[in-house]
Amino acid sequence: MVERSYEKYFRQNRLPHLWCPGCGNGIAMKAIVQAIEKKGLSQDNTVIVSGIGCSSRASGYMDFDTLHTAHGRAIPFATGIKLANPDLNVVVITGDGDCTAIGGNHFIHGCRRNVDLTVVLFNNNIYGMTGGQASPMTPLGKKATTAPYGSVDRPFDACKLAEAAGATYVARSTAYHVQHLVNMIAGGFDNKGFSFIEALVQCPTSYGRKNKMGSPADMMKWMRDNAVMKAAWDKLPDEQKAGEKFPIGLFYRDTAMDYDTAYDQVIERAGGAAK
Ligand code: SF4
Fold first, then answer.
1. Is 86 helix (H, G, I), strand (E, B) or coil?
2. pLDDT, tens digit (0-9, with 9 covering 90-100), for 84-93
3. Which residue of 31, 140, 171, 230 has the lowest C-beta tally within 10 Å?
4. What are the phi and psi torsion angles at 102 (to 5°)?
5. Which of 19, 27, 98 gets mutated to test ligand 1 (max ligand atoms within 8 A of its CB)?
6. What SS3 state is found at 94?
7. What Cα–Cα distance (Å) separates residue 221 from each residue in 174, 176, 216, 217, 267?
8. Is the dihedral of CA 155, 216, 170, 83 positive or negative?
9. Which residues lie across from 248 on neighbouring strands?
10. pTM for this predicted structure
11. Where do runs of H (alpha helix) occur along the chain?
12. Contact (CB, 8 A) for 194 and 168
């Protein structure tokens, strides 16, 4: 049997996973371990923290020190881990509902503090696990069990939200653009501060079925056809940015001081020994 290099990153006794056939969560989960391998991060020194939802099941499958926490609370758990041991690489896996609804306040304040975390939001545009309710990232007009005639709530652009709230690395990719997604996550590992990567993933069961988006492959073709690399996006006239087109790539990077360093300075000012 061929041994694949990434298999060591998964708990074989927890597989197969419970995601639906054709779900994009597995692609995003594998992209994280590919980025970990690409950057040569130590498996023993990396912690995976997740909230609640389909995406957050990933922490159970990944063979790291992992915490599967409460709904919306992955970022505060991760902040505590990072402050207790700043040498750890702390990765947060969250979903659009987990991160921007119940966890919305934790998200913006994690960004504001510039905690040195890498947060990967698996955006399936809906609450998948709980039955297909609209999330704060369900696009306008798209159907959900709580929006049978189409959502009228304007969705968050989580990347713009992260940048406005103070994150120092902000990027987006999709489950179709796998190598690009790996690179966006790997770039987040290089940033000492709050890194936010939105990974658009197909949810054929709850989102795709309600919105007649076809098979999982059709949903991935939709990503291929509508995602525009940032350099090309910036050159598009405004009328061509309308409709379902959306940009992917690295949107923002800054070198503001991260929270661990700022906190060490507080400890020094208070007369203690910084970590
Ligand atoms: Fe994936 Fe959607 Fe199924 Fe959840 S409901 S496992 S996001 S396909």
1. coil
2. 999 999 999 9
3. 140
4. -65, -30
5. 19
6. strand
7. 11, 8, 9, 6, 52
8. positive
9. 229
10. 0.96
11. 25-38, 58-61, 74-84, 96-97, 104-113, 158-165, 178-190, 209-210, 216-226, 230-235, 259-269
12. yes
Q: Is 26 exposed, middle or buried (0-12, 13-18, 19+ CB in 10 A)?
A: middle
**Strand 227-229 relative to strand 195-200, pairing:** unpaired
How far is the first Cα of the chain from the last one, in angstroms, to the nearest whole number?
A: 46
Separation of CA 14 and ligand 1 centre (Å):
18
Question: Looking up tokens 């929006």, which residue turns up?
Answer: 147
Name the token pair of 141: 């007009």
The token pair that represents 206 in the structure block = 């709850």
Q: 23 CA distance to ligand 1 centroid (A)?
A: 6
Nearest-CA residue for ligand 1 atom 1 is 23
CA atoms of 156 and 135, how far apart (whole Å): 9
What sign does the CA torsion over 225, 231, 237, 238 have? positive
Q: Which atom of ligand 1 is nearest to the CA of 20?
A: 3
Model pLDDT for residues 168-204, shown as the tens digit of each residue: 999 999 999 999 999 999 999 999 999 999 999 999 9
| The amino acid at 134 | A
d(CA 127, CA 104): 15
Torsion angles phi and psi, residue 204, rounded to 5: -65, -25
